[in-house]
Design goal:
single chain, 272 residues, alpha/beta, Rossmann fold, six-stranded mixed beta sheet, 15 strands, 19% strand
Length: 272
């Protein structure tokens, strides 16, 4: 390689890296990147086919447009209950088993500029509550709260069926502007888009996550650290997230013991 060619190559590489840094500022940037990315984002033995990056991103855009119909806008609150579509008596809120509907709902609300609570109290005062159909009756909805259920069946006519309405939604990026300083996640405190994105970049670098990495979710997805390590960092790197089975991954996101040699503790992936 000649000197001029080498200098041009380095300059191009610097430009691409700098562009990625500038663009990866809010959660919507991850979704837009995923829309054009090849590969599998989620894999579970309970799902007949893997969930591709492109399909998940398109559905997140659809979800953002759907939630706008129910009043979700910049600064509104959205409550999301993490769980399986068809929970059993052994299932607990916070854990994924068969499908990532709750994570899809989180990103959909984030695209609209909402502030999302992934571990809502029993009395929910928010613009929307999204939960497994079997668990909705555990929550008292405020007078202005719209209930949306995933899984089912849904017998209450006032409750919208999240997947069914998602199917027919507009597959384009929702309108509106979101900035890195905007709040997006309510947990032990409220975190901004910029904080979560910066921490996701650090986790990718510290744990050498790339497109060949598999990440097992073994912690409840209710904290900022779990969301960063279990969703945002893998999406940033193009990795595959696995859950709901016995597969041993390269990295685990876990509070306790895990069969993986490398474990990311949610507390270690929480923005300071």
């Amino acid at each position: 390689m000649g000197e001029a060619t080498y200098i041009g190559f380095v300059a191009a590489l610097f430009f691409i890296t700098g562009t990625e840094r500038r663009h990866m500022q809010v959660l919507g940037d991850l979704v837009a990147q995923a829309r054009n990315r090849d590969g599998v984002l989620f894999r579970s033995p309970e799902r007949s086919t893997p969930y591709s990056y492109s399909d998940f991103a398109t559905n997140a855009w659809k979800g953002g447009n759907l939630l706008r119909h129910y009043g979700v806008r910049h600064g509104t609150r959205v409550a999301v209950v993490v769980g399986p579509k068809e929970p059993t008596d052994e299932d607990q809120p916070g854990y994924l088993r068969g499908a990532p509907d709750a994570l899809l709902a989180f990103l959909a609300a984030a695209l609209d500029g909402a502030v999302v609570d992934m571990d809502p109290p029993n009395a929910v005062d928010a613009t929307a509550l999204i939960a497994p159909a079997a668990w909705l009756d555990r929550y008292t909805q405020g007078p202005g709260t719209k209930g949306l259920a995933y899984g089912g069946p849904v017998e209450d006519p006032t409750i919208a069926q999240f997947e069914r309405e998602l199917w027919s939604e507009n597959p384009l990026q929702p309108p509106g502007e979101v900035s890195p300083e905007d709040d997006v996640l309510a947990a032990d405190r409220t975190y901004t888009h910029g904080e979560l994105m910066a921490e996701s970049g650090r986790v990718v670098a510290d744990y050498d996550i790339d497109a060949e990495t598999t990440v097992a979710l073994r912690a409840p997805m209710t904290t900022a650290g779990a969301v960063v390590a279990g969703l945002l960092a893998p999406m940033r790197a193009g990795a595959t997230v696995v859950f709901g089975g016995d597969e041993i991954a390269d990295i685990a996101v876990a509070d306790g013991d895990a069969p993986e040699e490398t474990v990311v503790r949610p507390d270690d992936a929480t923005p300071s």
